[in-house]
Every structure is written in C-alpha cells, then in structure tokens.
C-alpha cells in the first residue's frame, strides 16, 4: 500500500493449490494494526505450477485433473483463476511438456 501498488496476488499456498483466502475474487485488503482499509486490492492466487510438480510430485495427468477441478470451482462462483507460472519454467526443457499439457489449457480454457 505504501508503495502505491494497485493489487497483489501473492496470497496462496506454496505446497497446495487452492483457495487460501477462501475466495476466488478480488477484495480490498485491510490493515489490522491501524484498523483501516487499504487502497491495495488482493487477487488471491489459486494455482502455481511448481506446487503440483515440485512440492507435491504429481504427474501431468494428476495435475491436469486437479487444475480442471479448481477451474470448475472458480467458474461456479464466477471468480478469477489467478495462476502463477514462472516464466523461467516456460523455456526449461524439463517443464515444456507440462507447459503444453496444462498452461495452454488454462489460458485457452480447454479442460
């Protein structure tokens, strides 16, 4: 807020994809210490690629199924599917098949 950022999307789990904030829509953040509303908006992160593949050790098929379920839940509540896919992993050979199998489907809504 002090840096005049408009929004943040770092609220998410490192080792679990899903709804850490309990919601999938943007909301105004609150400063509990000063008991005041901030200008900063939170767009909670729902999915991060390294969670499924690095931390949880899921296969592409397992990750695709779980991602499909998350997308369906977000759509059910007319929310926003905030996805963090590290740009360094887009070009890495190890991550290429995961990119093709999941990332493309996410952005094209083709699950």
Structure description:
This protein has helices spanning 49-55, 60-76, 87-90, 93-108, and strands at residues 7-8, 27-31, 36-42, 45-48, 82-84. It has 111 residues and is of the alpha/beta class. The longest helix is centred in the middle third of the chain and has 17 residues, at 60-76. The protein is elongated.
Helical fraction equals: 25-40%
Radius of gyration from the alpha-carbon trace, in angstroms: 15 Å
Strand fraction equals 15-25%
In the sheet with the most strands, the strands line up as: 1-3-2
The average pLDDT score comes to 90
Our count of helices gives: 4
Secondary-structure element order, as H and E?
A: EEEEHHEHH
Main beta sheet strand tally, sense and closure: 3 strands, mixed
Oligomer: single chain
What's the β-strand tally?
A: 5
State the shape. elongated
Q: Which class best fits the helix and strand makeup?
A: alpha/beta
Quick rundown:
This protein has 4 helices and 5 strands, in the order ββββααβαα.
Please outline the helices and strands.
Elements: E1 7-8, E2 27-31, E3 36-42, E4 45-48, H1 49-55, H2 60-76, E5 82-84, H3 87-90, H4 93-108
Parallel strand pairs: 1-3, 4-5
Antiparallel strand pairs: 2-3
């Amino acid at each position: 807020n002090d840096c005049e950022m408009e929004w943040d999307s770092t609220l998410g789990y490192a080792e679990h994809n899903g709804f850490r904030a309990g919601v999938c829509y943007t909301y105004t953040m609150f400063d509990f210490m000063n008991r005041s509303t901030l200008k900063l908006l939170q767009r909670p992160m729902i999915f991060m690629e390294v969670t499924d593949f690095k931390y949880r050790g899921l296969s592409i098929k397992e990750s695709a199924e779980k991602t499909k379920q998350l997308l369906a839940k977000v759509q059910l509540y007319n929310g926003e599917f905030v996805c963090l896919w590290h740009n360094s992993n887009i070009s890495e050979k190890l991550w290429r098949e995961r990119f093709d199998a999941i990332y493309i489907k996410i952005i094209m809504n083709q699950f």
